[in-house]
C-alpha cells in the first residue's frame, strides 16, 4: 500500500508575505494561488525537484497555530544552496557537520516555521 506525503500545510499570518518569501527568496515554484470562494485562499508551492509541496492560505490552517518545526530540504550541495539563500536575504545558520557525511544548515520563514537544509554525502 503506497502512502505518499505530498502536501504540508504551514501556518501563515500574512499569505502574500509568505508567498513572496518562498517564491522569491527560497526559490520554490508556484503551483496554485486560487480563491475557491467563501474567503478561502490556497497557495501551493513546491521546492525544485520535490514531490512534496507546502500550502499556505486563508481557511487552510489556524493562523495562530504553532509553527511547524524541522522540515527538511535535502540538497546536493549545501554550501551552494546556503550561499544562494544568504544572497536572497535569508538568515541561514552556519553549516553543522554531523559526521559520516551528514551536514545541516537551518533557517526560518517569517512565521517561525523552521527548515533544515540537509546534505548527505554517500
Automatic annotation (TrEMBL):
Domain VOC, residue spans: 4-120
Transmembrane segments annotated in the record for this chain: none
Superkingdom of origin organism: Bacteria
Pfam families assigned to the protein according to its UniProt record, in alphabetical order: Glyoxalase (PF00903)
SUPFAM superfamilies per the UniProt record, alphabetical: Glyoxalase/Bleomycin resistance protein/Dihydroxybiphenyl dioxygenase (SSF54593)
Signal peptide extent: none
InterPro entries: Glyas_Bleomycin-R_OHBP_Dase, Glyas_Fos-R_dOase_dom, VOC_core
Protein known as: VOC family protein
Organism lineage string: Bacteria, Bacillati, Actinomycetota, Actinomycetes, Micrococcales
